[in-house]
Design a protein that fits this description.
Number of helices: 13
Structural class: alpha/beta
Largest sheet: 7 strands, mixed
Strand order of the largest sheet: 2-10-9-8-5-3-4
Radius of gyration: 21 Å
Order of helices and strands: EHHEHEHEHEEEHEEEHHHHEEHEEEHH
Bound molecules: pyridoxal-5'-phosphate
Strand content: 15-25%
Shape: globular
Helix content: 40-55%
Number of strands: 15
Length: 383
């Protein structure tokens, strides 16, 4: 039974809350995916993805989770025994490594401590070690540790010494933050539907540069044959039955994004992130990211001796607030509160309030309201 006084609210970095207009758009029911109506909607969607990717090339829409498009990138852009470099600063960096290894790549890893992000110097040093490097795989946001990578600094530095393929996992980054695929000379950007786009999981997005389209692998592939997809999708005809209802949701999400405007959405996320960080500091909690904190999720440690998993369960049971815990070495030590997706300031404030109620319940802190107050002060500042 659902308790009307404990409303579930999502604060995990995916899936994110779905606005009512997006829900409504998905209720239309199946329309035939080979009809001209669907083809028009589909091509209009891929067209409107371009500015979100920051590219003049048309991205593709696949039916799969984010990890599916990560795999599609590896399958289409590498061959067996290719030397590839993976930046591993958390769970999703590790995932790049696992996928590339599954496909027989020779993977070297630049391992960065969890909670930190790579510096240009670290990356350049690693690149120098490998003379035949084919591709580099990294994240835009390492969502698992609540850090962002400084792409605007890293990529120009890397491009001075590396002419190969650069692939960015921007699954929790697109829409919320400005991606400049062409300007930063990125060859492949991947993303998914359940994070910044605020629709359910199930769609993967992948953009390739001109250079990437010219250097596709000759590996066997079928479902993730991007060249075949490209030919069909140019005419609004994905190779296989797409997730029709999700495309209808995407169509509405892109409408919302177009109306609000990407620069305003980016500013909104910067503001929410500042509010979340100042709230966590005002609560006396230790932030997970010591530098380069993510704009879409804020991580924090619980004081020594308190279980983050218990705290997380308590917040869900008592207040309906669904936060994310820590993974790998951070398990049971940290919590993460997302400010991702098309959410308003009051959504974030309720999550922060839930944390403060929880801190009081657990006897960690007596006072409540300091965090919410700090967040409100930040939100009240003119932008
Ligand atoms: C969520 C996420 C993924 C995984 O996406 P799935 O849809 O769960 O497969 C990969 N990378 C990053 C950075 C993410 O935030």
């Amino acid at each position: 039974m659902t308790d009307p006084f404990i409303q579930q609210r999502l604060f995990c970095p995916g899936p994110t809350p779905i606005p009512f207009s997006h829900q409504l758009a998905m209720l239309e029911g199946n329309i035939y995916h080979r009809s001209s109506k669907f083809r028009d909607i589909f091509t209009s969607c891929t067209e409107r993805l371009k500015p979100i990717f920051g590219t003049a090339e048309t991205p593709l829409i696949l039916t799969c989770s984010g990890t599916g498009v990560m795999e599609a990138a590896v399958v289409n852009l590498t061959s067996e025994r290719d030397q590839v470099l993976v930046v591993s600063a958390g769970k999703f960096g590790e995932r790049w490594g696992e996928i590339a290894e599954s496909y027989g790549c020779q993977v070297s890893c630049l391992t960065v401590p969890w909670g930190e992000s790579p510096t240009p110097e670290q990356l350049l040093k690693e690149i120098e070690k490998h003379k035949n490097l084919k591709a580099i795989f990294l994240q835009a946001n390492e969502t698992s540790t609540a850090v962002q990578f400084s792409l605007g600094e890293l990529l120009p530095a890397v491009r001075k010494v590396f002419a190969g393929i650069i692939v960015i996992d921007a699954i929790s980054y697109l829409v919320a933050q400005p991606m400049k695929m062409d300007e930063w000379q990125i060859d492949c950007v991947v993303s998914g539907s359940q994070k910044g786009f605020s629709i359910p999981p199930g769609l993967g997005f992948i953009g390739l540069s001109k250079k990437a389209w010219q250097s596709l692998s000759k590996r066997p592939k079928h479902y993730f044959d991007l060249l075949g997809e490209r030919q069909g999708q140019a005419l609004g005809k994905p190779s296989f039955t797409p997730a029709i209802s999700l495309i209808m949701g995407l169509n509405q999400a892109l409408e919302t994004i177009g109306t609000v405007g990407l620069p305003n959405i980016h500013k909104h996320h910067e503001k929410l992130a500042r509010a979340a960080r100042s709230a966590i500091a005002a609560m006396g909690l230790d932030p997970l990211a010591k530098s380069n904190p993510s704009q879409v999720v804020t991580g924090f440690y619980l004081p020594e001796g308190f279980s983050a998993s218990e705290f997380k369960k308590h917040l869900t049971a008592q207040y309906g607030a669904v936060l994310a815990g820590g993974q790998g070495p951070l398990q049971n030590r940290v919590l993460r509160i997302a400010h991702l997706g098309l959410i308003d300031r009051f959504h974030l404030l309720t999550g922060l309030a839930a944390i403060e109620f929880g801190l009081k319940d657990m006897g960690i802190q007596a006072a409540t309201g300091n965090g919410v107050k700090a967040a409100m002060e930040e939100l009240a500042k003119p932008s």
